[in-house]
Amino acid sequence: MSLVTALVYRRRHRLLGRLVQEALALYGMEVPAACEIGPGLIVFHRGFGTVLHPYTTLGADVTLYNGVTVGRADPWVPQELSAMRRVVVGDGAVLCAGAKVVCKTGVLTVGAGTVVGANAVLTRSTGPGEVWAGVPARRIGMRDGSRVPSAVLA
Prior knowledge:
Radius of gyration: 15 Å
Shape: globular
Order of helices and strands: HHEEEEEEEEEEEEEEH
Strand content: 25-35%
Structural class: alpha/beta
Mean pLDDT: 91
Number of strands: 14
């Protein structure tokens, strides 16, 4: 387990929590204590620039690269008035470098085993094992290697 991952898991510590949050900030990570994080989190490149919204749930064995943002698509609205409820990242999902997962209403779910490509902007829920890329993100294939028909991509 990397130092950054160990700090993420200790951010809720009763006595050291604030110190751990400041140590994560030195790495450029913002992971509020309210985030729910399952076992087996992998953070590459020390998570530099990674920001998670407090209403984020990460499943087991999720992989985060640097520059990932998970949050609201309506930051101009006060939190208590926002229609966004939660972002749920399923088990085994991979959020590549610079990926943005933003939710405007309800619950946005990144399916188990889904890959969100580098610098993609995901604004809607995905199914399990899919590969999403682009701005806005579109499904471009499946993690098993199969491709999406070009008619679907248009």
